């Protein structure tokens, strides 16, 4: 494919704004060029510096210049359930009732691979419309739900992390596997998909209450036997859930200790929610390099609680945090809308999330939480070319508000407060245009 050159303002993160001054952690270039070749960022910088390098080369130019557009890394969603897209916005219950009433009904349909492919197709279309280029996704208990997901992702050449849900108790019979069949099916899926193109596999025990000790043991074994695979699950989302885990695993110190006991914490391991952690659990997450997927729209929608970002990032023992939608418990695939809600959650905790930190958590910080910070989440030479172009005046009211914005930080904050998928003008994945608005 021909070299692509994108012209316009761009923004990318160069450091961790929770560790050093946010002003020193990003790079904003108002007159830039981004050169894409063979799915990678080949060159990026000020236009006057890159233009001479391009003189002899063959390329196709796309002009995104002007003060109303911004090129950025694609968003990274660290925790989402694609099979729950058909039940997004289901009224009236908290976690455990919501699972039984809506989720466990909807997920039964994925025994049909054609249905699974049809939903996966909608999911990717909506994800790219929202500007998200990588997600760590839960499928269902059916291996074919994983085949559907990764085969649709491959058509668009997307970097995706996903896995078959394992559940061998406390779920309808049509949604359960066994310790042995969960092991065998996961192993076959790892061999088929992990490292196949841009696909990466995640062992996915749904959460401690739906797996027997035997199944968690088998999950730990799979992890030891397949270097580099991910683990994803849920942790300390809801107080009734936590009490249930205590009843089911009386020999363990607490919820996280269940996962730790079976070898399910550490690098390339992502737990959704983590709303009600104990002091010991925060410490263990820090030491082990386990990542937290923060899911504000879901936590508000299901009434689960407020994630303590101040504790997670500012109090001496920082942990990896990546922004996540948790659709269908979450209410939007838009990372901008997710940041909007996250800001309000932090306000209620008396810690006001600023825009630089917010966008970091949705791009480079999320990529680092998935141990993919060397591949995605930033715009630099050699990184995979997953990026978006934002329209900074996507609605009449945002257009009006932008007239009084004074700098890039305020611009970003207004966007995350007011904008949504309408602000995503274009999405590129692996150097290819995969979504264009209108
Ligand atoms: N805990 C176990 N399963 C789920 C799920 O599907 N969604 C959410 N939000 N929490 C869970
Ligand atoms: Fe979830």
Overall, the morphology is: globular
What's the overall average pLDDT, rounded?
A: 98
Number of strands: 17
CATH homology-level superfamily of the largest domain: Metal-dependent hydrolases
- Number of helical segments? 16
Query: Which CATH architecture of the largest domain is right?
Result: Alpha-Beta Barrel
Beta-strand proportion: 15-25%
What is the CATH T-level topology of the largest domain?
A: TIM Barrel
> In the CATH hierarchy, what is the class of the largest domain?
Alpha Beta
Terminal Cα separation, in Å? 25 Å
| Rg | 21 Å
Helix content: 25-40%
Given as residue ranges, the uncertain stretches (5+ residues, pLDDT < 50) are: none
* Number of structural domains: 2
Catalytic activity: guanine + H2O + H(+) = xanthine + NH4(+)
Family: Belongs to the metallo-dependent hydrolases superfamily. ATZ/TRZ family.
Domain Amidohydrolase-related: 71-434
Pfam family, one: Amidohydro_1
Write a compact overview of the structure shown:
By secondary structure, this protein is an alpha/beta fold.
Describe the structure.
- The chain is an alpha/beta fold.
- The chain folds into two domains: 3-73 and 378-436, Roll (Urease, subunit C, domain 1), CATH 2.30.40; 75-369, TIM Barrel, CATH 3.20.20.140.
- Helix content is 37%, strand content 24%.
- It has helices at 47-54, 95-106, 113-129, 143-156, 179-193, 213-225, 239-248, 255-261, 279-288, 296-301, 309-314, 335-348, 355-362, 364-369, 396-402, 408-418; strands spanning 3-13, 26-37, 40-46, 59-63, 69-73, 75-81, 132-138, 159-163, 165-166, 199-205, 230-235, 269-273, 291-294, 320-323, 387-391, 424-429, 432-436.
